[in-house]
Amino acid sequence: MIEQSHMPEYIEDEIYRLRLFVTGASPNSTRAILNLKEICDNFLKDKYELEIIDIYQQPLIAQAEQIVALPLLIKKTPGIERRLIGDMSNRDKVLKGLGLS
Amino acid sequence: MSTSLKKIISQHSLLLKTPTGIIGLDEITDGGLPKGRPTLICGEAGCGKTLMSLEFLIRGAIEFNEPGVFMAFEEKASELTMNVASLGFDLDKLQAKKKIKLDYVHIDRSEIEETGEYNLEGLFIRLGYAIDSIKAKRVVLDTLENLFSGLNNQAILRAELRRLFQWLKEKDVTAIITGEKGDGPSLTRQGLEEYVSDCVILLDHRVINQISTRRLRVIKYRGSVHGTNEYPFLIDEEGISVLPITSLKLEKEVSSKRISSGIPSLDSMLDGCGFFKGSSILVSGTAGTGKTSIAAYFANETCKRGEKCIYFAFEESPKQIIRNMRSIDVDLQKHVDKGLLKFHASRPTLHGLEMHLVAIYKIIKKFKPDVVVLDPITNLITVGSVSEVKAMLIRLIDFLQEEQITVMFTALTLNNIVNEQTDEGVSSLVDAWILVRDIEFNGERNRGMYIMKSRGMKHSNQVREFIITDKGLDLVEVYLGPEGVLTGSAREAQKLQEKAGSMLRDFAVSRKDRELIRKRKVLEAKISNLQMEFESAEEELNKMHQQEELIKQMTSSTREEITNIRRGEHNKEKGGKNG
Question: What is the average pLDDT across B502-519?
């Protein structure tokens, strides 16, 4: 971790591990998936792993991951963990949250 | 509630209630919180919201077999467990037994970026899963408003909260939502009362005269009667107690059994039998008039009958009382040893009135006495205002009457107005009021006692002198002379004076008696004299009569003889001649 803090947040060959929590096929969830995919394809082409989890299917994760608001995107790596909620329609904020701006 | 109203309600389906198990709260709310609906508990920081809601869950799980989910937005599960461990609740065990589920919801604004439309479905899923996993009937959302500090979009939050409460109702769980009181007129910072409209309970924590008191008020309870007052409550090692309850009605059982005061002469002033069982007695008087002695006598008498008594001392230590009472020939120690008498001494300033009340309440509940003595209640003024003390005593008397416990209060009266008020304040509540007062007269102080009132009996209206000797207490009749009421040595002097007077009178009477006897004797002598005179006169008269008779006889006989002689001169001669 100490090493990481000296490094810039955005590293070229770092893989983005993203987890998106959604609730079935609700409008918010659908929008979030579409918006996020678009952002990732534009900015992180081939540099990301996106895992989409339906909380309805796995309710136990909600407690483990401290989920309150949905849809929720958790960026595990690189850098510190970030949480983004909402349908990802605000592109600037998403980019800022991912450390891409 | 009138009977007709009751009928109407019973015809329709009654609002079902979930008992909280918290002492006193169920009485105030007439059975508990509305079943299957959310209740809002609001109040300032540190007023006991979390504890009350947690106790609601724990008691529900233990006493009513209703599992519960606690969703904490403020404290972590481990912190909560530790907090209630001090109250003797083992949350870990309850969690392991699937009676309670704790879920700590962590929201940190700095970690979260809002990127558009969202909802709180995650919270719903978590809560729903928790409820379903243990089949919870009770839910607590502790400081739900923390959501507002973690998330920005107020419009979404408000819409989601409305949905949440609706959802909770659909889930048919009895929920408590806590909310912190903010500035301004609204009950909670975010106006949660807007969403929870069935039952709202306000907790309050006030410090008056450096002594803090917690209070509870049911602001709103749709579809149910409830107590509307502010009720003090306590948090102690057994959890929350809203205590004691002033019952909403005056429907208590009464006893016509009488119990002795321990002082026979006082009993005789009280219609000859003493106090009613379950009544409240006030003994008031100035300093040093023997109030404690009367109370100790009463306690002693109770224990002698084999009944139990608790003596709450706010002034003296138990040992001091026992020692002092030995001087008037009352041995309290033996009753203490037998377990019939229990002392509970505490300084009034030790804690607030409510704490005292609860301490009293709890000890009484545990010991189940027949008689309770509070000596003196006046000292409680130091920790509360007159009206607060009165309110406390009302509740205490209420509780004791319900339990059919006779209570004796002692109260110090000073000749200043403020304290007299207390006296009067309490005096209207009590059933019997005995006043002991100093009678200062002739260079000494004596004690006078009278019964100001005694409900339901023909009590004496006389002032009695109250004497304390090393043999014990006694009442003697005071002297009501021309100079007024006499007591003490004046009474003794008056007694002596009257004794001397009666002796003098006795003497005078006996002299007169003797004179009379003498007079009678003289007269009797005179009478006999006269009688004798009369006898001699009578004798004289008789003598004369006899003489007369004799003379008469003699003359007649003489004449006869003469006649005979005359006639018979011849004969005599003849006879003489013959003879």
Answer: 91
